[in-house]
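In response to reviewer comment 3 from the previous cycle, which asked for concrete evidence that the modeling workflow produces usable outputs, we include below a single protein chain processed end to end. The sequence was submitted unchanged, and the resulting structure tokens are shown without manual editing.
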Amino acid sequence: MGFIRTLTGDIAPDELGRTYAHDHLFCVPQLWKEKGIADFMIDDIEASLADIADFVKAGGEAVYDATAIDYGRDVTALRTLSERGGIKIIATAGFNKAVMWPGQMGDTGQTIQQWIDARDRAQLRDHVVTELTQGIDGTGLKGGVAKFGTGYNTISPSEDKVMRAVLDAHKETGCPLHSHTELGTLILEQLDVLAEEGIDPSRLTIAHVDRNPDPWLHRKAAERGSFLCFDGISRIKYHPESVLIECILNLVRHGHEDQILIGGDIARRTMYRHYGEGGLGLDYILRSWVPRFVEEAGEAGFDGKALIDTFMIENPKRAFAFAS
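The workflow returned the following structure tokens.
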């Protein structure tokens, strides 16, 4: 393994610690701001810090913040949260998904879609490489993961161009990769593109796999070598926790425990405890879900505590490391 790039500097993988593999600690998505959807405005440093304090108290040490430019990324705020909150934060280079691209691209006067359309694959690659090696938005703060995304059972021409440009950035930098899947669709199709581009699938973490709780699909993706991120924990409106836990244990039964990552994908004020909405909070996974998982894993004949250490300490070391 090489190094892990955090907002407070590059570290050895062993320094990362207990990690959430997909969350949003500070973000102001431009499209949702334009539409007046206040619940998506994670924009209060002090409130985020209070939730981070709960996370640290529960044993949390690091977070991959999966907020890309099209979802309202603010790496300066994230750096403040890292320094004041006492956690390591990995920031995101690249993009999320086309549904967000009608939003404005900073102060360019263009939408994100127009900005992407005006650039070819090589120019987009160079943009992502700059975010990874020189700094994001002119800050000097570098992304530690490059992200791309696809829609619900669709890959638009722009998403395909962006995806391949992000993969080109990976070829140039050796960075770890992260993908958005809308409701867990097109997982194998994304892996097909990686194969076309000659990318080792073990460099990719696929998000939102638990939105599509299909054990066969999960197994086939794992067999190809990718990391699978279970980041819908607490979202009972999609599936009860029992469904997610059974999907995870099914992968363990098939020998894929070294490819499982855990996160909460907290991206609403109503999901945070300290934004005044009384949500479950950033510490929910460690405080409540982990003990339940350990119990259910034990009932199924596994060492649940050892599995949690694998999912949240050992696997992130590899998933978020640049190639040596």
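The chain has a mean pLDDT of 96. We consider this sufficient to address the reviewer's concern, and the full set will be provided in the supplementary archive.
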